[in-house]
Amino acid sequence: MLRRFAISFSLVLVCVCAGARTRPHYGGSLRVEVAGDPWVGPEGLARRLVLDGLTALDANGFVSPALAVEWQSDSGDHRWQFRLRQGVHFHDGSPMNAVAVVMALNTACSGNCPWTAVRAVGSAVIFTSDSPMPNLPGLLAGGMYLIALTRTADGQTPANPIGTGPFQFTSSNNGQLTLTANESCWQGRPFVDEILITGNRPTREQWLDLNVGRTDIAQVPPQELRQAQQQHLAVVVSPPVELLALQVSDAGALTNAVLRAALAQAVDRGALFNVIFQKQGEITASLLPQSLTGYAFLFPADRDLNRAIELRGGLTAPRFVMMADFDGTMQLAAQRIALNLREAGFSVQVVSSPSSVRPDLALLTLPIEGADPAAALETLLRSAGENVPVAGRNPTALYRAEHDFLDLKTLVPLLDLPRAWAIGSRVRDVRLRADGTPDLAGASLEGTQ
Amino acid sequence: MSLRQKLLLLFSLTVAAAVAAVAWTVLVRIRHVFEMRDQEETALFVSQFQREFQHRSQEVAAAVNRLAASERARAMAFELAQSDDAAAYLTEAQSMAQDAQLDFLEIVGPDGKIVSSAQWPARFGYPEPAAQNASATPFLKREDLPDGSTALGLFAVHAVGGTTVRLIGGERLDQGFLADLPVAPGMQIGLYSDAGAAASSGPAAIVSNPSTTTTFDASRLLGANGSLPGATFYQSLIDAARTSGQQVNGIVNPTGRREDSLNATAIPLKNEQGNVMAVLVVAIARSGMVQAQQHIRAIAYGVAAGGILLAILCSLWIAARVSRPIEQLALAAEQVAGGNWDVRVPPRGRDEVSVLARSFNHMTEQLQSQRDRLVQSERVAAWRELARRLAHELKNPLFPLQLTVENLVRARELPEAEFDEVFRESTATLATEIANLKTIIGRFSDFSKMPKPELERIDAKDVVERVRALYETAASRDAKIKLTVDVAGAPMPLDADPELLHRALSNLVLNAMDAMPDGGVLTISAHPKGDRVELRVADTGQGMTHEECERLFTPYYTTKQHGTGLGLAIVQSVVADHAGSIAVESPAGGGATFIITLPRAAA
Asked: 20 to 30 A from B223, CA-CA: which of A81, A85, A181, B33?
């Protein structure tokens, strides 16, 4: 009897403890460190926490409702109507309505919008366009079209970003952003009370802070994944969500498409992949990864230096300027590409700061978002500044669209890269979004009550 | 140029030449001494440079050796030897270079390709020939950099732990290196290395081809404090050193002022293959030498000027002592030549010039006395000749006179009719011979009473025409002589006595007619000859011998049977009174020409 009681008691105790362990706790400050500015760019970590879009990508990359609960198109996708979620308020208490959404969208994309016009009609937002917008819901999930309050109740422009997200902007001091939990978030209150995001922190120092417990989440660049694993950091890695590409101008000497083709043939992706990015990601010559489209292998990725030299022929090209981020890895990759191009007879100077003149070449990363190839393709192209609507949705049409675009040789895909984050021991339930950023709204901290 | 001026010039040139010779010798010597000193300083500096270079080489080699021997490098080399994966060590070289304080470091894998490069991280995977070919000794190498520039470095290669993984490490040879070198005052040093943009074709060419000589770039000549001042002026030296591979010396003048010029030496620095990697320039200021030369030159100019001044003073003194007496002598000689034999030169002192003066005076005295004696003897001779001639002339008519008187005395004894006839013949003979006597005496009287010429402006042409008019008809009619006249068309003015000149010319014409008893051609001509007028009377007679020509103008000399011999003497006297001359030519074939030359009157 006594033994039976003891066993039963032990089992109950174990169950209670286990249940207690899997249940997240509210409270605590989640500390995050990133290498860049957390607010800059559509993929900025802080933006995603403070702002919502009309739609969002779920964990599997599919479009799901966010501020809009449903949507429909007509007129051959020339017109879309999005019905807004009710009862959603901005962080300052003002209601999120169609007017505010329209104002936010007009501010967010000035000039290069997928739509021709957007207007508020009751609690709906109507998008119209001269050309079909079959991928509009997917596009609206992108970081470019997040909804931020543009006018406060008293008609002023907010000094700080105000959104409807799970966290609201509180302060920014000495490079550290403080976001506090939105108690009345339409998605539900996040578990942590606040998130402290420190930007412009070098990766090694982030890891150091992680090791000593000064931060909870640190960035792991793809080329340092191996090292992070060697250092036994808990790393979460996304599938390829970034395309490393070489953008080639079509102005000046590069108006000549043959020269652009020579440049494309001269790049050695293998060296970039094997050495610089430490075999993380995938070599690619297509815009979307193989896992998304299934036809990426049809684009040859091997370097053909002889062909490149042949295409250049006797042309004497001027010295090209290649711009790359100040980031060390990007600079290294750019230098390597410059060396490759030099072998083909091109002279290239790598710069890190933008100038008033558009550079001849630019090494950049483009987002690969979502599970919808068409939407992902259009989002990627828009990110590159290419206004190329993607009408077809079937693989053949998409392949044709990609092929036709890549034939212009104004964008040379190089690598598909993942994003990775090192997670501290007290952080739980950190999942990565479709864009590779951590979904901190659902994260919690151990040891908090 | 007078003697005085010549002496002055001679003295001045002597002084100037002497001073110039001395100054030139001193200048050359000074330049030589300074150049020797510069060469010694340069050689000393070069040896110091080589020592420092050696020291740096050892430091680099030691640093690379330490790295290669480190546990970290060994582990890396082992890993690289075991696996093909060099990606993990992409940034290893940067880290190791930082630790070892090297400016350059490359890790080269077993396949000879770069695993990691500190100075150019993107060059992984490219071959590094230096790793294979370099010996154990440090070497110079030009290293290409990502920004397109090149840097000169001192490199060493070492294998890691006996593996085939090599480390190539190096330090820059830049102005920092130069700053550590001991530099003497007035010395400038610079290091020139070829700029060489990274090659545009092929990975092998990315390492600058050492044998390619690029165009000179002044910005690549660095001193201890940055760019060397006046770098462009070193171009020729540096290019020569790069081309020839030998040390080259020369003078560089950055500012154009001689004081700022420099004695420069360009020393090529070569790698193991003998290619020139860089040129070390050592320049030593020549200001000291230039200043010394200028000082000496100034002294030389001063001494020369003083010497010339002294020469002027000396020449003035010498003129007083030497040239003036000589000038006096020359003047006196000129006067003597002009006919003034009374001039004397006062002798001063006892030197050669005074001896010459005394001799001159004695000579002129002798000449004067001899002339007097000659005149006297000529007078005596002339009187004797006159007496002889007179006796000869008078004797001829006197003898028939005597015979005639004797005939008359004897004819007194003859009958009256015969006496009358003898008386008539004798008186006729007496009258003829007395007339002859009167003629002879008249000629002598005329010759003794030759008037002084009364000069007036006449033309030679008129004189000739007058003679022609007088004798032409008679000559052709009586003597069958053709008289021709050849007169120049231009005026031939003469300051002469027309009567005396007519008389002289008439005598010559008569003599010429007498010389052609069987006829001939008599030519009278008058032509200007420069500042003189030449009158010629030529005949085609039998001519005269040379001896006859010489004696022709002697009074009373005649070749004619009858004549006093005074005609040509009168001609000669007239010509002499007109400051002219007379000559005779008689070629061997016959004929004779009398030539009267008279001064042409001024216009």
From this structure: B33
Tell me what pLDDT residue B367 has.
Answer: 85
Q: Burial level of B136, CB count in 10 A (0-12/13-18/19+)?
A: exposed
Q: Same domain for A272 and A196? A: no
**For the whole model, what pTM was predicted?**
0.65
What pLDDT score was predicted for residue A154? 85
Q: Where is the domain boundary, A145, A179, A199?
A: A145
The rounded distance, in Å, linking the Cα atoms of B252 and B263 is 6
> Is the model more confident about B5 or about B558?
B5
A102/A250 same-domain check: no
Last residue of a domain, which of A91, A114, A145?
Answer: A145
Round to whole Å and give the CA distance between A53 and A33.
24
Show the tokens assigned to B378: 């000529």
Sign of CA dihedral A65, A70, A71, A72: positive
Nearest to A342 among B87, B88, B200 (CB): B200
pLDDT tens track for A324-340: 987 789 999 999 999 99
Here the CATH number for the domain that contains residue A179 is 3.40.190.10
Lowest mean pLDDT segment, chosen from A21-30, A47-56, B26-35, B330-339: A21-30
Residue A295, domain CATH: 3.10.105.10
Instruction: Give me the pLDDT at residue B135, please.
Output: 57
User: B502 by DSSP, 3-state: which?
Assistant: helix
Distance CA B176, CA A131 (A): 65
Please calculate the CA angle B120-B125-B126 and round it to the nearest 5 degrees.
70
DSSP 8-class letter at B122: G
Q: Which whole-number Å values give the CA distances from B79 to A241, A401, B110, B125, in the listed order? A: 32, 46, 11, 17
Which of B119, B200, B201, B207 is best to mutate for the A interface (most A CBs within 10 A)?
B200
How large is the ipTM? Answer: 0.80
Is A398 in the same domain as A297? yes
| Residue B496 near residue B578, CB atoms below 8 Å | yes
Place of tokens 């001829």: B396
Residues A256 and A191 in one domain: no
Buried b (16+ CB within 10 A) or exposed e, B417-429: eebeebbeebeeb
Q: For chain B, what is the mean pLDDT?
A: 83
Whether residue A152 is contained in a domain is answered as: no
Searching chain A, which residue's CA lies closest to the CA of residue B146? Answer: A335
Q: Are B443 and B566 in contact (CB under 8 A)?
A: yes
Inter-residue contact B573 to B452 (CB < 8 Å):
no
**Are A345 and B200 a contacting pair at CB < 8 A?**
yes
Question: Nearest CA of chain B to the CA of A237: how many Å?
Answer: 19
- The verdict on A59 and A40 lying in the same domain is no
Q: Which two tokens stand for residue B448?
A: 């003794």
The Cα B566–Cα B447 span in angstroms is: 7
CATH classification of the domain holding A112: 3.90.76.10
Q: Inspect the interface and report whether the beta carbons of A343 and B202 lie closer than 8 Å.
A: yes
**Per-residue pLDDT averaged across A363-373, rounded?**
90
Residues pairing with A120 in the sheet: A125
The token pair at B21 is 């010779």
Counting one residue from chain A and one from chain B, the pairs whose CB atoms sit within 8 A come to: 44
d(CA A267, CA A276): 14
Q: Examine the pLDDT at A88 and tell me if it is beyond 50.
A: yes
Please count the structural domains in chain A: 3
Closest CA to A266 of A416, A384, A412: A412
What band does B472 get if pLDDT is binned at 50, 70 and 90? Answer: confident
Round to whole Å and give the CA distance between A117 and A267.
41
Domain range for A378 is: 242-417
Is residue A127 one of the residues assigned to a domain?
yes
Subunit contact A275:B202, Cβ cutoff 8 A: no
Mean pLDDT, residues B69-91 taken together: 88
Answer yes or no: do A356 and A389 share one domain. yes
In a shared domain, residues A134 and A42? no
